[in-house]
Amino acid sequence: MQPSDASLLQNTALYRTELIRALTQRFAEPGIYETAIAPLHVIRMDQPTELIHTVHKPALCLILQGRKEVGLGEDCYRYDPLNYLVVSVTLPVSGRVLQASPEAPYLCIRLDFEATDLAQVIADAPPTGVPDEPERGMFLETIDVPLLETMLRLVRLLETPRDIGMLAPLALRELYYRLLRGVHGRRLYELAMGDSQARRVTRAIDWLNSHYTQPLRIEELARIANLGSSTLHHRFKAMTAMSPLQYQKQLRLQEARRLMLGEGLDVASACYRVGYESPSQFSREYSRQFGSPPSKDISSARRVVDARA
After folding, report:
1. Which residues, other chains included, contact 73 with Cβ-Cβ below 8 Å and sequence gap of 6+?
2. Cα(97)–Cα(84) distance, rounded to whole angstroms?
3. Which of 167, 184, 274, 309 makes the best surface tag, with the fewest CB within 10 Å?
4. What Cα–Cα distance (Å) separates residue 103 from each residue in 61, 65, 87, 92?
5. Closest to 26 (Cα-Cα) out of 41, 15, 48
6. CA distance from start to end of the chain
7. What is the pLDDT of residue 305?
8. Does the pLDDT value for residue 6 go beyond 80?
9. What is the C-alpha separation between 123 and 189, in angstroms, rounded?
10. In this structure, which topology does domain 254-308 adopt according to CATH?
């Protein structure tokens, strides 16, 4: 190992240790916390978790301690403090914490962002190139000292709330700059700027998230995205790891599960609420997605919740 490599690892460890100290003191119990800096969230878990299905909005996810697994379609992303995850478009995913304990809790910083946040930085510092072919809307990148150092400055502002209004925007702008300057930053560039094909696909994604209960007509979705039907299908699948129909199905099933578990709806009511016309089709697709029929799955999930209460 070269001295420069050893120095890099040492500096990375020092910044990470300081971040862990600051966050474990402020967030002493397991949970998902909002902070006084609106895009910044902190997740702490004291034990590994069951698989959780959710719709993930664009964000930077930086693990400081522990390990996690995230599934997107057939893809699986495992990451830890040596790398960070970027979700660049809204995606239905599954995830679970693999490594956590009371002595060494799982600690993760989630920094939400919008395309407009990136566009403001791009206007002043455009990247050197953009991808010719569509790429995944989720990727892993190796952690580096500048990003960790900037994140530490942002987190430290939680200790001086009077400084947040003035200094947090500067730190956030620097973080977006670091993401854009990363190995995969060109993906973010194409998604944030102008009328690129990736930007048009995000319009289709946004429409599906707002209208997932409606029947899906690819020709209409292609019109909304201002793309040909075959081009939309190709680029949509490249970005999300699924077709538009599979994407809609994921949204419907996740929302149905939330309605049954969180709001107490029965299977038929949840089925119709999310846009299914056939309860038998709903049950089949639900079983494939979650591993068991709706009633059995919800009963099992409630027993887990009751056991932890």
Report:
1. 240, 241, 242, 246
2. 14
3. 309
4. 22, 11, 29, 32
5. 41
6. 49
7. 65
8. no
9. 10
10. Arc Repressor Mutant, subunit A (1.10.10)
- 128-150: pLDDT as tens digits: 655 556 689 999 999 999 999 99
Decide yes or no: CATH 3.60.10.10 for domain 3-185.
no
Taking residues 103-132, report their average pLDDT. 84
pLDDT at 195 over 80: no
Residue 187: Cβ-neighbour burial (10 angstroms; 0-12, 13-18, 19+):
buried
3-state secondary structure of 33: strand
Q: How confident is the model at residue 12 (pLDDT cuts 50, 70, 90)?
A: confident
Across 174-178, 190-194, 232-236, least confident range:
190-194
Closest among 173, 140, 244, 172 to 202, alpha carbons compared: 244
Indicate the pairing of strand 106-112 with strand 40-45: antiparallel
> Distance (Å, rounded) from C-alpha 276 to C-alpha 269?
10
In terms of Cα–Cα distance, which of 90, 28, 26, 25 is closest to 248? 90
With tokens 């500096």, the residue in question is: 11
Rounded distance between C-alpha atoms, residue 298 and residue 308, angstroms: 16
Listed by start position, the domains of the chain span 3-185, 197-242, 254-308
Alpha carbons 66 and 82: distance in angstroms, whole number: 11
Higher-confidence residue: 1 or 22?
22
| C-alpha span between 208 and 202 (Å, rounded) | 10
The 3-state DSSP class for residue 197 equals helix
Confidence of residue 306 (pLDDT cuts 50, 70, 90): low
Give pTM, 2 decimals.
0.91
Predicted confidence at residue 3, as pLDDT, reads 45
